[in-house]
Amino acid sequence: MIMAKTRTQFVCQQCGAVFPKWTGKCEQCGEWNSLVEQTATSEGSSAVARSAKTGRPLTPQTMRTISTKESITRFGTGIADLDSVLGGGVLPGGVVLLAGQPGIGKSTLLLQIASHISATLPVLYASGEESAGQVKLRATRLGAESGDDLHFIASTSADDIAATIRTGAYRLVIIDSVQTLSLAEITSAPGTVSQITNSANVIIRAAKESGAAVILVGHVTKEGSIAGPKVLEHLVDVVLQFEGDRYGGFKVVRAIKNRYGSTSEAAIFEMTETGLTVVKNPSAALLAERQNADGSVVLATLEGNRPILVEIQALVNSTSFGYPKRTASGFDLNRLNLLIAVLERRTKLNLSDKDIYINVVGGLKLADPAADLAVAMAIASAAAGRRLDDELVVFGEVGLGGEIRSASLSDKRIAEAKKLGFTHAIAPVPSKKNSFINGVQDLRHALVDYLK
């Protein structure tokens, strides 16, 4: 008896496109080496045919008739800054996706949250990556092993975890991680597009039915984006990004999507022996070891809506090669190259034969356009061997013409600088007269007037 050959297909792990044979590059999204072989099924076409004949008409409501009397009370995580990022706490029935690089502290943070909430509400911690003994060791280190309402299961079955959520026995369920889940009906391996998408859908439906809040841990790729299909981010209610240096420095949790709150808040942590703790005064900690030398500039920046003072360091050295090297830690390299071009074109600095290195102290990653002026002045300071006065902070966006453009929330930046003893700011010319701000209109005047 000759057995029928199993048909296979190749599915892109980025966009979900299906191809009959393997190719190095996905023709749909352009990603390389993203096609994975899976068993082909004919369920899709038959399901579409059935759905065309089934279903029932739905009764819609108008916006006026929809009731808003039901009040949903959020429950706190025990970390006030994280509650602000979430929009006021964890929302019952909401699904949160927390993503970050390996070793940054995702599991530590979630176990701390689970320990706090389990003091008043039943919590389930489901791990597909670690055994019960491994989680117990972490819980002992964090002091989270004493509660009777913090339950643990080790499972990778999305069916079983969803069934447990639907029992309604738990108000919060933490799943570590979504990339390890799989459904029995799907033959592909965990972590593939079909498994992640369908497992997440099953978990989300169970959360909405039972009213339990769910926090999913997500992996990231080497580029820093969330692993798996982009549809995963669309399915959940909140997407949190955990950023920072896994070996030290500050770690930042910010919302990149939030259906129930703002995406402009950020929580800043540091890792200690007893877990992650909130940094109360990050500006003072970041500037504690600063030495005012050439190439050092204090930037008044923002993490969400929170003002922070951070040191920008620049090192400029004659290159030993034909092509100068430009390196940035915590700052976008393309933006650095643009600023170097503006400096060369709009000022008298010659940087074409210089290696340039930029470092943002504390492991922070800057996305603030107002960091431009501080980076440019740090480069000029290092190149010329001159430095800024001790009491000056800097912020402002630099245009291609060398002009200095306005920065958002200037009042908050100035208030933070005053709190730490700074007396003046090099910044865009304010609309209203301000004795604290030394307004500059272009990059050339900023360098001539303030580099001593």
TrEMBL record:
- One Pfam family from the UniProt entry? ChlI
Biological process (GO), any one: methylation
Its GO CC terms are: cytosol
**Domain RecA family profile, which positions?**
71-220
What the entry lists under InterPro entries is as follows:
AAA+_ATPase, DNA_repair_RadA, P-loop_NTPase, RecA_ATP-bd, Ribosomal_Su5_D2-typ_SF, Ribsml_uS5_D2-typ_fold_subgr, Rubredoxin_2
Q: Which residue ranges does the UniProt annotation give for the motif RadA KNRFG motif?
A: 257-261
GO MF term list: ATP binding; ATP-dependent DNA damage sensor activity; damaged DNA binding; hydrolase activity; methyltransferase activity; zinc ion binding
Keyword list, A-Z: ATP-binding, DNA damage, DNA repair, DNA-binding, Hydrolase, Metal-binding, Methyltransferase, Nucleotide-binding, Stress response, Transferase, Zinc, Zinc-finger
Region: Lon-protease-like; residue ranges are 355-452
SMART domains, sorted:
AAA (SM00382)
Q: Which residues bind ATP?
A: G100, Q101, P102, G103, I104, G105, K106, S107
- Protein's UniProt keywords contain DNA damage: yes
| Spans traversing the lipid bilayer | none
Q: What's its job?
A: Plays a role in repairing double-strand DNA breaks, probably involving stabilizing or processing branched DNA or blocked replication forks.
Query: Which family is it part of?
Result: Belongs to the RecA family. RadA subfamily.
Q: What is known of its domains?
A: The middle region has homology to RecA with ATPase motifs including the RadA KNRFG motif, while the C-terminus is homologous to Lon protease.
Name under which the protein is recorded = DNA repair protein RadA
